[in-house]
Structures are given as structure tokens and as C-alpha cells.
Write a structure and sequence with these properties.
353 residues; alpha/beta; 6-stranded parallel β-sheet; 13 strands; 18% strand; globular
Length: 353
């Protein structure tokens, strides 16, 4: 065994020794995110921190800007090397697969959230990505006039190659086919940073001023599209993802039409609950899919999914920027999760159905 492999094996064995049954106060978990500073990612972190508070465990958060598989894996390994019994991470590429599976084999509890690889031996918490795209595409078609709709529709993706985003694109385009008169362009790479994202959308619109709808697949898009639409006389229908304050404000002001939420609180809370349950009961985490639930929000209707109480658009905006109010809103849901975190697990393939 060479020196590097020997050190790695020793590290993994040390990590495995840390995952014996433990009381809540003895449990330390890591939580790793991409797109540092994005308000949607912060909503996920808020959910994870709410779970840690409810369950009485220590949660440490590490973030990286952008989307790099190597960086994401390194942050996850750092937590395991420091003795964390479990780590939740979004998956930013197949380059994370081998390293995460080694941690799983060593006994570290790993949960994927928001983005996944079906080659990693760990459960995943997220939306049904193709179906959410179908819902968004259907909403856009209906807003444009249904099957008789005509014109150019532009689709943008912030991280090309990330499977859940490609799945969303697939679903959107499936639904747009209900109107044969629509000419769909993209998905184009629109980047994730606020400035780059707006600039990319602005360039696409300048090149296609006849566009009747612009559809983003990532958290920053609606805010950018709302700003762009306002600057051009609100001439196109804007739709996309996530219930951040800037996105909801764009809808409230009439510059965007619809946002599909993917239950950020659930994507943070449930991975922590799953890891704590597995650690306390000294059991492995089964590979499977946990549907975080879809949310559909327009200026006229708010559907928060997951059997949550009905709320107004104004209340949705308040929740978007208030972690404490959000935790209270989800309390009944969280109580069910604490009673049985593993309820409702589906086969991993169900994510892309």
C-alpha cells in the first residue's frame, strides 16, 4: 500500500469509528453546498439548521462558490476527516462518486440533496426533476394561449451537464410541444452569478427580440428575467424556479409569471433527520429517493405542496426571508419527519420519472 492510500485508509477507519450509536448531543454533522451566497441555497441551509436545532445535534456548514465537483468532494471529505458522523452534500458531478462511496463504505452517513448521482450509494432528497419541468412548461403554454400559441421560447440553464437541470429542461420542452407553433431555443448556458446571469439573458433577448417567453431552470433566473422584462416593456412571459424574495418580488411586480419551488426547507431538513436517525440506530442509509415536493406560485395562486397550510402570496414572500417563520410554518410536517424520517422513500429512479 503506498503512503497516500495508507493515509486514506487510516482516515476512513477513523471516520468509521466515529459512527457508533450516539446520543444526540454527541452527533456532529457536515452540510456542504454549492453556489455560495445564493438565497435559495441559504433557504436550504436554514432548513438544515432548523433540523439540527430540533434534533439537538451539532451541524457545521461549508460552502463553495459556483459548481466544482472536486471542491465539493474535498469539503465533504474534510468533515469526515474531522470526525463528522454524517455529511449531506449536493452533487456537482460524477467526479464525486468514488470519493463519496469510499466514505459510505467506511461507515460515514452520506445524503445527497438538490442534485444527485445515481451512482452514489446514498439516498437523495430533491424534486422530481423531469415532472417539475413538465409543470413549468405547461404553465408557460397556458399563459401563451394554449395549443395555438406561437413564437420563440428561450430556455436557459445555469449549470449545463448537471443532471437534475437537464431533466428539468427535458420536462419543460416536453410540455412546450403541446403548442406546435412554438419555436424553442436552448437551453443556453446563463451562468449562476447574479451579474453574469442577467448579462446572459440580456444578450439572448437582444439576439431574439421577438421572443414571447423566457424560461430559466435555476434560482437566479426569475429575478434576472423580471428585471429584463421591466426594462423592455414586459413583452415576454417569464418563468422559472425557486421561491426566493427577489423571484417572488418579480412576480408581485408583474414582471414574471410563475416560479416552481422545490421545497428548500425540506431539502435541508430531511437530510439531517435521515442522518441522525441512521446514526442513533446504528444502521446504514438505504439508497432511495425522497420527494421534497413541488410548489407552484403565481401572483394569483400559491400551492406550497407537502400538505402544508394554504397561504397568501404576501405570506409566501414573508416566509422567503424569515427562517424562523418558515420553521414554524413547517412544524407539523417536521414533527411527522422526526417520528419516521424514512417514510415515503421511493426507488432512486423515481426522481427522473
Amino acid at each position: 500500500m503506498n503512503t497516500f492510500k495508507g493515509l486514506l485508509a487510516a482516515t476512513l477507519l477513523a471516520s468509521a469509528a466515529a459512527v457508533a450509536p450516539a446520543a444526540a448531543q454527541d452527533i456532529t454533522l457536515g452540510f456542504v453546498t454549492h453556489a455560495q451566497g445564493n438565497p435559495f441555497i441559504q433557504q436550504i441551509i436554514d432548513g438544515a439548521q432548523a433540523a439540527a436545532k430540533d434534533l439537538g445535534v451539532d451541524l457545521q456548514v461549508a460552502q463553495q462558490p459556483g459548481s466544482q465537483a472536486e471542491g465539493q468532494l474535498k469539503l465533504t471529505q474534510n468533515f469526515a476527516n474531522a470526525g463528522a458522523q454524517g455529511v449531506a452534500t449536493s452533487i456537482q458531478g460524477e467526479g464525486m462518486t468514488r470519493g463519496l462511496n469510499e466514505l459510505v463504505d467506511a461507515g460515514v452517513k452520506i445524503v445527497q440533496y438538490n442534485t444527485l448521482s445515481t451512482n452514489i450509494n446514498a439516498p437523495y432528497v430533491g424534486e422530481k426533476s423531469v415532472e417539475s419541468g413538465r409543470v413549468l412548461g405547461k404553465m408557460i403554454v397556458e399563459k401563451l394561449g394554449g395549443a395555438d400559441a406561437k413564437g420563440t421560447v428561450i430556455v436557459g440553464i445555469c449549470f449545463p451537464g448537471i443532471q437534475v437541470l437537464e431533466n428539468r429542461s427535458q420536462g419543460v420542452q416536453e410540455s412546450l410541444k403541446a403548442a406546435p407553433g412554438l419555436n424553442v431555443l436552448g437551453p443556453f448556458d446563463v451562468k449562476v452569478s447574479e451579474v453574469e446571469n442577467y448579462n446572459r439573458w440580456e444578450q439572448l433577448y437582444a439576439a431574439n427580440p421577438e421572443t414571447v417567453a423566457m424560461v430559466g431552470l435555476c434560482a437566479p433566473d426569475i429575478a434576472s428575467l423580471g428585471k429584463l422584462n421591466a426594462a423592455n416593456g414586459d413583452k415576454f412571459v417569464a418563468g422559472g424556479y425557486d421561491l426566493t424574495e427577489p423571484n417572488l418580488k418579480a412576480i408581485q411586480d408583474g414582471h414574471a409569471f410563475v416560479s416552481i419551488g422545490q421545497s428548500a426547507f425540506v431539502q435541508g431538513y430531511l437530510p439531517v433527520a435521515l442522518m441522525v436517525d441512521a446514526i442513533k440506530n446504528d444502521k446504514p442509509l438505504e439508497v432511495g429517493f425522497y420527494d421534497a415536493g413541488a410548489q407552484i406560485v403565481t401572483a394569483d395562486t400559491v400551492d406550497m405542496g407537502n400538505g402544508l397550510p394554504a397561504i397568501s402570496f404576501e405570506e409566501a414572500i414573508k416566509l422567503a426571508g424569515d427562517p424562523a417563520a418558515t420553521a414554524e410554518y413547517y412544524k407539523a410536517w417536521a414533527d411527522k419527519v422526526k417520528a419516521d424520517p424514512t417514510a415515503g422513500m421511493q426507488p432512486i429512479a423515481a426522481e427522473a420519472e
